[in-house]
């Protein structure tokens, strides 16, 4: 079983203007002359974590990481209720990836994404297949109506996390619980911290409740980062991920030739393996792995090992 590569710090970083007043934080790690790879974080709105750098052999890869619009160190920050999300959509993020590639002078690169990063990776590859050498996808999220029903109605993940679901519902009056996503949206977008603060915390608690197979202590996240995550995630969920009506499966023929590895935890409650399986059914050429002792997180040992095995094999 393969373990993390050692911790590493960026050798270069900067801010990139992408229009409408948005600036993206980006960083480069590893070997400046190595094989280019870009890491797409989850959320949406999750931002980068130091361990995201450790899926790649630093002696062989030139790794590009960046905070997507309005989260992490990118600006303006969605933790400010006044920050507009009007220009934060999937087409905007796809264009940002291309602009960053051009800015860094990279011709083609491996694309690595987990959870929302898998969604964005598929969308980017289908828009720019000529720029992608390989795809590594983890915790596949297709953002279909059925996928959202699983996450945000009593008929889905609530069956497995009843106490956490009850707490999620308790933050909303009974009269509004027939549309929890809409009710949370009204509160998360309220400029009053007394309204959006508790809503953002409740939203994040439900998001994190099913992140790993075995319970883990939730990370300590400040209120502004909680609000940024909740606002951006809700923005995408309530708009179908800003994906085309036919969804991502319809575009597989454009990327069928790209060597691809798909990894999903058997007990992934956030993005159950039926989504990865549906992708593999229309794309049997992609190498498909179910990790029998894992949930959603990319840091769980079995999942992590397969992801690092994929990047190591693609380097060779």
Automatic annotation (TrEMBL):
Every AB hydrolase-1 domain range: 38-299
Biological processes per GO annotation: proteolysis
GO cellular component: cytoplasm
GO molecular function: aminopeptidase activity
Main location: cytoplasm
Keyword Protease listed: yes
Source domain of life: Bacteria
Stretches assigned to coiled coil: none
Subcellular location: Cytoplasm
UniProtKB keywords: Aminopeptidase, Cytoplasm, Hydrolase, Protease
Entries under Gene3D superfamilies matching the protein: alpha/beta hydrolase
Active-site residues, as the UniProt record annotates them: 115, 268, 296
Enzyme Commission numbers on file: 3.4.11.5
Pfam families, per database record: Abhydrolase_1
Reactions this protein catalyses: Release of N-terminal proline from a peptide
Family: Belongs to the peptidase S33 family.
Protein name: Proline iminopeptidase
Annotated source species: Micromonospora arida
């Amino acid at each position: 079983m393969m373990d993390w590569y050692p911790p590493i710090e960026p050798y270069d970083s900067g801010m990139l203007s992408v229009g409408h007043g948005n600036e993206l934080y980006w960083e480069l790690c590893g070997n400046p002359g190595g094989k280019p790879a870009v890491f797409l974080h989850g959320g949406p709105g999750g931002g980068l974590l130091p361990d995201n750098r450790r899926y790649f052999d630093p002696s062989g890869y030139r790794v590009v990481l960046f905070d997507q619009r309005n989260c992490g160190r990118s600006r303006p920050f969605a933790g400010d209720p006044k920050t507009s999300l009007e220009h934060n959509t999937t087409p905007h993020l796809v264009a940002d990836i291309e602009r960053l590639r051009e800015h860094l002078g990279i011709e083609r690169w491996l694309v690595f994404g987990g959870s929302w990063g898998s969604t964005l990776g598929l969308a980017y590859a289908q828009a720019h297949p000529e720029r992608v050498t390989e795809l590594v996808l983890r915790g596949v999220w297709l953002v279909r109506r059925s996928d959202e029903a699983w996450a945000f109605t009593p008929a889905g993940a609530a069956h497995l996390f009843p106490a956490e679901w009850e707490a999620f519902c308790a933050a909303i009056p009974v009269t509004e619980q027939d549309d929890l996503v809409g009710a949370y949206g009204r509160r998360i977008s309220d400029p009053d911290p007394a309204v959006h603060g508790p809503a953002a915390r409740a939203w994040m608690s439900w998001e994190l409740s099913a992140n790993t197979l075995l319970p883990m202590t939730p990370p300590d996240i400040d209120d502004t980062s909680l609000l940024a995550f909740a606002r951006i995630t809700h923005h995408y969920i309530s708009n179908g991920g800003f994906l085309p009506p036919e969804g991502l499966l319809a575009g597989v023929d454009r990327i069928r030739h790209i060597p691809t590895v798909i990894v999903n935890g058997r007990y992934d409650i956030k993005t159950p393996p039926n989504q990865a399986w549906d992708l593999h059914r229309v794309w049997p050429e992609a190498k498909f792995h179910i990790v029998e002792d894992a949930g959603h997180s990319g840091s769980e040992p079995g999942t992590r090992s397969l992801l690092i095995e994929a990047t190591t094999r693609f380097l060779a």
